[in-house]
Design brief:
By secondary structure, the protein is of the alpha/beta class. The chain has helices spanning 28-36, 57-64, 88-95, 115-125, 160-164, 179-191, 200-209, 234-237, 242-261, 265-281, 292-300, 306-310, 312-325; strands at 2-3, 15-21, 44-50, 72-76, 100-103, 109-110, 129-139, 157-158, 176-178, 213-225. The protein is built from 13 helices and ten strands.
Length: 332
C-alpha cells in the first residue's frame, strides 16, 4: 500500500476524521482544506483513503500533501477495494484511534471552522448521548446551494419516531460519534445483515439510537454535494424496482433482528413499524414483491399492536405530506 511520507502524529487524538475518496478530483481539495481549517483545543487525526481513483484525484492528493498539517495521513490504495468486506471505508474506520469519530466523504465539505469543537464540547458534557449531528446545505457540482432540502430531523432530539418518518439525524458529514460503541454496534448489525445493498446512513440512524440519545444541532455547518447526473452517490444511481423493494424489506427484517438482540422494546416497535409499512407499500402498485393478502396475514400474526402496524402507511404519508407542504426535506 502506497502512503504519503507524512504520517499522523503519535499523540492520541480526541477525534479521528476519516475521508473515503474515489474519483473526486474536482472536489477533494475543498474537502480536505475544510478539515485542515478546524480550530480545536484538542488533537485530531485525519485518515484519507483513495480507493484507486482513475480521474486524477491521486495527483491532487499528492500535490496537497506538503501543505497539509502533520496530523493528516493519506493512503493511496494499490488496488480498488470494492464495496464489500474490508473495503476502503471499513479499513479507515479500523485505523481510528480517537475517542470520537467523524466521517466526511471526499466530495463534501465543512463550512464552519468550529464544528468539531462544538460537537466535542457537547458530547463531553452530555455522556448519555451516543452521537451529535448538525444541519447541512445541499450543493451541486458548482458547490452552490441547489435548492434541495436534506431530510434531516426537524427537532433537536432524534428519536425512533423520527426514524420511522424517514428523517435522518443529519447527513453523514455532519456526524460525530463515540467511536468504540459505534464500531461495536456497526459490527453487530453487519453480522445480522440480510440485505445486499441499502443506504448506510439509514442503518446508522437506527443502531446509534440503541446506544444512547442523539442530538441534532440546527446550525448548517457543512455542505452535502448531490450530483444527480454522473454522481457516485447511492441516491443518484438507485433504481426503484422489485429488486430495490426486496432489499428494503430485508433491511426491515435486519433491524427487527438487531433490535430484538438488544432487548430494546422501543427499537423493536420502531423496526416493526418500518418493516410493516414497507411490506404494505410493496404489496400494492406497479412494483410489488408481496401480495396484499400475504402482507395482511403476516401483520395479523403479531400478538400486539396490530392496529398500529396496519395503519403505519397512513400515519407515515400523513406526517410526511404535512412536512412537505411546510417545505421540509422528506423522503417518500
Amino acid at each position: 500500500m502506497e502512503e504519503q511520507t507524512k504520517t499522523a502524529t503519535m499523540q492520541t487524538p480526541m477525534v479521528s476524521v476519516i475521508v473515503p475518496v474515489f474519483n473526486q478530483r474536482d472536489y477533494v481539495e475543498r474537502c480536505l482544506r475544510s478539515i485542515a481549517s478546524q480550530e480545536c483545543d484538542f488533537p485530531i487525526e485525519v485518515i484519507v483513503g483513495d480507493d484507486l481513483s482513475t480521474d486524477g484525484t491521486r495527483d491532487v492528493l499528492r500535490s496537497l500533501e506538503p501543505e497539509l498539517p502533520d496530523w493528516f495521513q493519506i493512503l493511496l490504495r494499490p488496488k480498488n477495494m470494492g464495496l464489500r468486506g474490508e473495503n476502503n471505508c471499513n479499513d479507515l474506520l479500523h485505523r481510528c484511534r480517537g475517542r470520537y469519530m467523524a466521517i466526511l466523504e471526499g466530495d463534501d465539505f465543512w463550512t464552519y471552522d468550529g464544528k468539531l469543537q462544538a460537537q466535542v464540547d457537547f458530547l463531553e458534557s452530555h455522556p448519555g448521548y451516543s452521537a451529535c449531528y448538525h444541519h447541512c446545505v445541499v450543493v451541486g457540482a458548482d458547490s452552490k446551494p441547489n435548492g434541495e432540502k436534506y431530510p434531516e430531523c426537524p427537532k433537536e432530539e432524534y428519536t425512533f419516531k423520527e426514524f420511522f418518518y424517514m428523517s435522518l439525524p443529519g447527513q453523514i458529514g455532519t456526524s460525530l460519534y463515540r467511536r468504540e460503541p459505534y464500531l461495536k454496534a456497526r459490527e453487530d448489525i453487519t453480522r445480522m445483515r440480510l440485505y445486499d445493498s441499502y443506504p448506510g446512513d439509514r442503518r446508522n440512524a437506527f443502531f446509534i439510537l440503541t446506544i444512547g440519545r442523539v442530538r441534532c444541532m440546527n446550525q448548517a455547518w457543512s455542505a452535502y454535494r448531490h450530483v444527480v447526473k454522473g454522481g457516485s452517490s447511492y441516491s443518484s444511481n438507485v433504481r426503484i424496482d422489485e429488486g430495490y423493494a426486496r432489499q428494503e424489506l430485508l433491511f426491515g427484517k435486519t433491524i427487527i433482528n438487531f433490535a430484538e438482540s438488544r432487548h430494546n422494546a422501543e427499537a423493536i416497535h420502531a423496526a416493526k413499524m418500518t418493516y410493516y409499512r414497507t411490506l404494505l407499500k410493496w404489496s400494492v402498485g406497479k412494483v410489488r414483491c408481496s401480495t396484499l393478502h400475504d402482507a395482511l396475514r403476516e401483520i395479523m400474526g403479531e400478538k400486539d399492536r396490530r392496529p398500529s402496524y396496519l395503519l403505519s402507511p397512513l400515519r407515515w404519508y400523513a406526517v410526511l405530506g404535512v412536512r412537505a407542504l411546510l417545505g421540509r426535506g422528506v423522503t417518500l
